[in-house]
Specification:
660 residues; 7-stranded mixed sheet; binds magnesium ion; binds adenosine-5'-diphosphate; Rossmann fold; Calcium-transporting ATPase, cytoplasmic transduction domain A; alpha+beta
């Protein structure tokens, strides 16, 4: 777009952007002129002008209503409103009480206005969610031997080096090679405090570089950057209506049919059997059509949940759909994964103990050769340790990760296994099931630690270190001890969740019991389930569900994915999380901010409360108006105002959730 002239939106553009609002405004004008001409006694002109108001204000609803009727043979509330308005107009012409035509037009107008308002609420919510994602730049400054070159971001490849100057947006997820800077990561975390970063740290696409120039190395394909994955998730969330909404929509259809039937009965039985006068009964039946329609009921849920989703997104809590928002408010028990969730996942190797006759370097070399293929924090730590010691890694082949156990592969024809102590025995079972390259005999041998390693291992585990074995064919090369720190706010989060009335907080981990206990103590968790395989995590979740009903699971790894899917609400750690966890989860905590969990629960409870209030309010209002109509104490305009007013009130009440 050109920068020189500020475009003034033409009427056409305005109409394109807000067709509902423009139609409602025109309808209002016509209505006013119709009423005025009627006041002046020009009946013919009034009828024509009012007819135009009907057409313009009711066009969209009629179109939608007829489409539903023809395609799905269903009546919807929109059509009901139109029928009621046309009924009023017909009655007005018949009885020559032309103000009834104005009443019908008022109905159509208010209906058009509330439609436009609802559309506006939806748009705002959508914008809110999207504003969370700053636009990522289209081009990046690629560093090549020949010099700098601007290239499209999607052309970047893993391993490319790029330069980001101060104040620029980061084009894609990358690791800092040189330079330091503070970055504004609000677009992914919702937190506007700048974050200091230096060589070795990861930066994310769409975040804003501060004062330092950064030389970066692209470490994953641009299309799978965090922000791109999140955008995908949000797009998906917006096209999927939550089950509660679908239920209400189905309910609406049958309800609408019942109302039409009752309306017809109300219109014809009293005059036939009781001798009432036709005109009054038809008028009452039309009012009945209006006030009995469940518009307010339908507006009770979606705007509320969408507002909650938008509020969460602003704070770095990504709800994939509205149901999850309701669900997390109801959770009674929460299960946490340990590594990467309660702990930072910034695992580091603290000690390498070789078996007698082996060298420390060899232990690291063999282990790192396999772990180079691993996405697990333990694997990355081992590779880092090897790099730090500048150990050259041999190539490993046939590498297979065994989720929750470890990893195995071949180096120079030898079978290497890196993993937890029990991995030896456990993988036997696995190998026969999944037909990988493990042979029973190989692993059966040499699976107990030499005495000197046993003592070392026990001591390390007692102090919260994770110990993995490195096995080569039938020989133990040694053990590697790794340390991980609990997240600074983990203990506080657990405490707050308890204060919010969460009855049970447990830890689920694949790590061994003594390591787990020590982290549990530090984070204030009493119940620990250790040495779990991914499927064991699932059974613990099931057990908790039997006991507590709604259960949330928080995790980050591939090993957590089955449990995330099983739990009533699966919550994944955003930046640290594996893709699988991110996709399986219902809620994503951006940038690993575990402490946002408390906010999520709170938001969920508020949403549930507002939806309940709305439904009670909407239902009572419908009942009230029905009674008033049967008592004969409201006319058409009052019925319309009561009906549309209550719809508006619940919509606005839902929008309260947009505020913090
Ligand atoms: P958590 O449940 O705490 O996230 P995992 O289920 O991912 O832990 O892993 C459980 C255990 O399996 C680890 O403590 C480690 O002993 C072993 N393990 C898993 N993956 C690897 C790997 N890539 N290299 C070495 N050991 C591993
Ligand atoms: Mg984990």
């Amino acid at each position: 777009m050109s920068q020189s002239s500020l475009p003034t939106p033409s009427l056409g553009q305005l109409f394109k952007q807000h067709p509902d609002a423009v139609a409602a405004a025109v309808c209002a004008l016509l209505l006013f002129f119709g009423w005025l001409t009627l006041q002046l006694g020009w009946v013919g002109l009034a009828v024509i002008v009012l007819a135009a108001a009907y057409v313009i204000g009711g066009y969209e609803s009629t179109r939608e209503g007829l489409t539903t009727l023809i395609k799905e043979h269903q009546l919807d509330v929109d059509l009901l409103m139109i029928v009621a308005a046309l009924g009023a107009a017909g009655l007005g012409l018949w009885r020559q009480e032309y103000y009834l035509i104005v009443d019908g037009a008022v109905l159509i107008l208010i209906f058009a206005i509330s439609g436009a308002l609802e559309g506006y609420a939806m748009q705002r919510t959508e914008r809110n969610i999207r504003s969370l994602m700053a636009v990522t730049p289209d081009t990046a400054r690629l560093l090549q031997p020949a010099g700098e070159q601007m290239v499209p971001v999607e052309k970047l490849q893993v391993g490319d080096e790029i330069l980001v100057k101060p104040g620029e947006l980061i084009p894609t997820d990358a690791i800092i090679l040189a330079g330091y800077s503070s970055l504004n990561e609000a677009s992914i975390t919702g937190e506007s405090m700048p974050v200091e970063k230096q060589a070795g740290d990861e930066v994310f696409a769409g975040t804003i570089n501060g004062n330092g120039a950064l030389k970066l190395r692209v470490h994953q394909p641009p299309e799978s950057s965090l922000i791109q994955r999140v955008i995908q998730l949000v797009k998906q969330a917006q096209t999927e209506a939550p089950p509660s909404q679908l239920f209400i929509e189905r309910f609406e259809r049958s309800y609408a049919q019942v109302i039409v039937l009752v309306g017809i009965l109300l219109a014809i039985t009293p005059p036939i059997f009781l001798g009432w006068d036709w005109e009054t009964t038809i008028y009452r039946a039309l009012i009945f059509l209006v006030v009995a329609s469940p518009c307010a009921l339908m507006a009770s849920i979606m705007p509320t949940l969408l507002s909650g989703i938008a509020n969460g997104a602003r704070q770095g809590i990504l709800f994939k759909n509205g149901t999850q928002l309701e669900m997390i408010g109801r959770v009674k028990a929460i299960a946490f994964d340990k590594t990467g969730t309660l702990t930072t996942g910034n695992v580091t190797v603290v000690q390498v103990t070789p078996a007698t006759g082996e060298s420390e370097t060899d232990v690291l070399r063999m282990a790192a050769a396999l772990e180079a293929y691993s996405e697990h924090p333990i694997g990355q730590a081992i590779v880092q340790a090897a790099q730090l010691q500048q150990i050259e890694l041999p190539t490993a082949t046939d590498v297979q990760a065994q989720t929750g156990l470890g990893i195995l592969g071949k180096v120079n024809g030898q079978l290497i296994v890196v993993g937890k102590a029990k991995y030896g025995q456990l993988s036997l079972e696995y190998s026969s099931r999944e037909q990988n390259l493990l042979s029973r005999e190989k692993l059966n041998q040499g699976c107990s630690l030499p005495p000197e390693l046993t003592t070392a291992s026990q001591q390390l585990e007692a102090t919260g270190k994770t110990v993995v074995w490195v096995v080569c064919d039938d020989k133990i090369l040694g053990i590697i001890a790794l340390a991980d720190k609990e997240r600074p706010l983990a203990a506080q989060t657990v405490k707050r969740l308890r204060q919010l009335g969460i009855e049970q907080v447990v830890m689920l981990t694949g790590d061994n019991a003594s390591t787990a206990e020590s982290i549990a103590k530090a984070t204030g968790i009493e119940q620990v389930y250790a040495e779990l395989l991914p499927e064991d995590k699932v059974s613990v979740i099931r057990q908790l569900q039997r006991q507590y009903g709604a259960v949330a699971m928080v995790g980050d790894g591939i090993n957590d994915a089955p449990a995330l899917a099983t739990a009533s609400v699966g919550i994944a750690m955003g930046a640290a999380g594996s893709d699988v966890a991110l996709e399986t989860a219902d809620i994503v905590l951006m940038a690993n901010r575990l402490e946002k969990l408390e906010q999520a629960v709170y938001l969920g409870r508020r949403a549930t409360r507002i939806v309940q209030q709305n439904i009670v309010f909407a239902l009572s209002f419908i009942v009230l108006l029905l009674i008033a109509n049967f008592a004969g104490s409201i006319n058409m305009p009052l019925g319309v105002i009561g009906h549309e007013g209550s719809t508006l009130i619940v919509t606005l009440s839902g929008l309260r959730l947009l505020r913090n």
